[in-house]
Write a structure and sequence with these properties.
Layout (H helix, E strand, L loop, with lengths): L1 H11 L1 H5 L1 H10 L9 H10 L5 H16 L2 E2 L13 H33 L4 H22 L23 H18 L16 H18 L5 H12 L12 E3 L14 H6 L10 E2 L1 H9 L5 H4 E2 L1 E2 L6 E2 L36 H4 L1 E5 L2 E4 L4 E4 L5 E3 L16 E2 L11 E4 L1 H13 L7 H19 L3 H14 L6 H14 L7 H11 L5 H11 L14 E7 L11 E8 L20 H4 L1 H10 L20
Parallel strand pairs: 7-13
Antiparallel strand pairs: 1-3, 2-12, 4-11, 5-6, 7-8, 9-10, 13-14
Helix pairs in contact: 4-6, 5-6, 5-20, 6-7, 7-8, 7-9, 8-9, 9-10, 9-15, 15-16, 15-19, 16-18, 19-20
């Protein structure tokens, strides 16, 4: 049903997406006389557009937000993890939102109200849906930029506000909460949009989503105003009516009916497949990967893969016959002092290839992990970009990527707000003392849903089965994935708080559940500074030790380490080693709206470094 709706949406909205500015100008000049267009098409547009741009997903998510969160890493485009600026990358999210989506958000509200006033239509319920979608959109923008235009955003056409003020993030959160509370009460007034990507017009589902978003906003406020955050959280939690099961999750499905540059794809997914600008270099970070391998996290079969660029796009490597003793859980527990022949390697966070990809030194040269397979030799074997045949030593010296066969491709669903997040939020709120709830139960349910959402919503089960079977055949004959899932849930549940900080355990699992969604994982880190291995200040991690080998260990099984050498990992970027707390405002904002943009910068002046990208947001953890 949802995929059918998307196809209808593409056809009906073609004129709007091809000439959006001209259409809105005409509507303004003619007092919205062209408002005969059914608002349902604008509604599906504002539901989908933020998640369906390959241009923005590549830049905002894969290059910047994901690496800023410490969950993923990008060794080719290191601006995010290297604590540097790139207006070309960070402006894309702003441009998509304020250049397109906000105008539709404002216009649909104006026209629905106009139809109520002039035609007697009962649009209160539809306006409630619009308000909820507005919050979903603005949550991403404020989480990435801090203070942004909110109350006056998009009113250039409807009210002539050409230079909108920047509302403070605190004001935005409080306004969002008020709008959600009102929307929650109005959902039952009149018909809802049934052409609805999330719930097909189900009022009860929309009410659960509104309450779940209130809980999210409450936690976003925890650092800036604990009491107000608690109040907002409880306004939703006390109802007992929020998303609790996977089937209640708000999910946006995607397809390719309009091609890789169209309006229906998963934008970050199509970028992860390298189909909107080339290989995206979206790998798992070393620290995140090892944290999963230490616990034999069964998600690795879903979220991780070697990648293959021998075809026209970036794909997961499927040739299981080219692996030897395959073990996704093996890692180097003596990092820097020896070389281990392990299959899955992550990228260390830094902007120097000697550090973030260097795996050993031989004959005085630093050897790097390869990115991908790039060609096939005369015997039919895959060869990686550093010239190693994969079936031989190449399999032990290649980075592991966010899997394009399963969780992040052009047709992967977008989790707008899923039940795993809600259970983690309740567990966190209870740990903070905000609510009385069974912390262990919600935590374990969150972990369970975070794992089981993959086989529930995502394609790629054949890939997972093939690599589970490979692991069983080559390394662990008794392995059972379903059993391993339950063992993992029990293990992390039993270990909750044993290391002295139950809140970090909860937030770590919440953060880990967002692989592929850099915006969410960054927001989680930014407001908590958990997991603690993602450092706010990496000055003490500027260098790493790399083993010095007597010969190349990818080509010689008997190679041994003769010592180690310190190499540079991180230059400190423009912040003096402080991790970014935000995207900077686009450069053009200081030309077209200078007074308000500069005022927002001045308003957010608490800053551990001299550059604005480390200025704390209201929601940021400040230490």
């Amino acid at each position: 049903m949802k995929k059918l709706i998307i196809n209808i949406f593409v056809v009906a909205l073609a004129a709007l997406t091809s000439s959006c500015t001209d259409l809105f100008r005409e509507m303004n000049d003619n007092d919205y006389t062209s408002g005969d267009m059914d608002p349902k098409y604008q509604f599906t547009f504002i539901q989908a557009k933020l998640f369906s741009s390959g241009h923005e997903g590549y830049r905002g998510n894969l290059i910047m937000a994901g690496p800023m969160s410490g969950l993923t890493a990008n060794p080719q485009y290191t601006q995010g993890q290297g604590f540097n600026r790139s207006d070309a990358f960070t402006e894309a999210t702003w441009t998509l939102f304020y250049g397109d989506i906000v105008k539709n958000l404002e216009d649909i509200q104006v026209r629905l109200n106009k139809r109520m006033d002039e035609n007697g239509e009962e649009n209160t319920g539809k306006l409630a849906q619009v308000s909820i979608v507005k919050v979903i959109n603005f949550l991403r923008i404020t989480a990435m930029y801090g203070d942004v235009p909110y109350s006056e955003a998009g009113k250039g056409y409807s009210e002539g506000v050409l230079y909108p003020k920047y509302d403070t993030q605190q004001e935005i959160f409080e306004s969002m909460a008020e709008e959600l509370l009102e929307a929650r009460e109005n959902l039952s007034n009149g018909e809802l949009f049934s052409d609805d990507f999330y719930f097909a017009g189900n009022a009860a589902a929309w009410e659960r989503l509104a309450n779940s978003l209130l809980m999210k906003i409450g936690l976003f406020m925890a650092e800036g105003d604990d009491a107000k955050g608690r109040e907002i959280f409880n306004a939703a939690y006390s109802t007992g009516n929020y998303i609790t099961s996977l089937t209640e999750s708000a999910v946006l499905e995607h397809n390719e009916s309009d091609g890789p540059w169209g309006q229906t794809v998963n934008g970050s997914g199509v970028a992860n497949e390298g189909r909107v600008g080339g290989q995206s270099y979206q790998f798992l970070s070393h620290n995140a990967l090892v944290s999963m391998q230490e616990k034999a996290d069964p998600r690795l079969f879903w979220v991780a893969s070697h990648i293959d660029n021998r075809g026209s796009s970036t794909a997961a490597f499927l040739n299981t016959d080219q692996y030897t003793d395959y073990d996704p859980f093996a890692y180097n527990d003596n990092e820097g002092n020896e070389f281990k022949r392990i299959h899955y390697r992550g990228v260390k966070e830094g902007d120097r290839p000697d550090g973030n990809r260097g795996i050993f030194i031989a004959d005085g040269n630093i050897e790097y992990s390869a990115y991908t397979m790039t060609k096939t030799d005369s015997d039919g074997n895959a060869v990686n970009n550093l010239g190693y045949t994969f079936k031989d030593g190449g399999q032990y010296g290649q980075l592991v990527a966010v899997n394009p066969a399963t969780i992040l491709n052009a047709t992967s669903p977008t989790m707008i707000l899923a039940s795993d997040e809600v259970h983690f939020m309740i567990a966190e709120a209870a740990q903070r003392g905000w609510v009385s709830a069974d912390i262990s139960s919600h935590f374990k349910t969150g972990v369970e849903h975070a794992i089981k959402k993959y086989p529930t919503f995502y394609s790629g089960a054949d890939y997972v089965s093939a690599f589970v079977d490979l692991y069983k055949d080559q390394t662990n004959p008794s392995y059972n994935w379903e059993g391993a899932v339950q063992d993992y849930i029990n293990q992390v549940g039993n270990d909750l708080g044993k290391n002295g900080d139950a809140l970090e355990d909860i937030v770590y699992q919440h953060w880990l559940s967002q692989i592929g969604n850099g915006y969410n994982s960054f927001a989680i880190w930014n407001r908590t500074h958990y997991p603690s291995f993602v450092k706010a200040n990496t000055r003490n991690e500027a260098n790493v030790e790399v083993p010095v080998m007597d010969k190349n260990p990818l080509e010689n099984d008997d190679a041994i380490a003769t010592g180690s050498q310190s190499v540079e990992l991180h230059t400190g970027g423009i912040t003096g080693f402080y991790r970014s707390n935000r995207f900077p405002y686009p450069n053009r904002e200081f030309t077209v709206n200078p007074s308000n943009a500069n005022g927002a910068v001045d308003n957010q002046s608490e800053n551990p470094s001299s550059d604005f990208i480390t200025a704390y947001q209201f929601m940021s953890k400040k230490n």
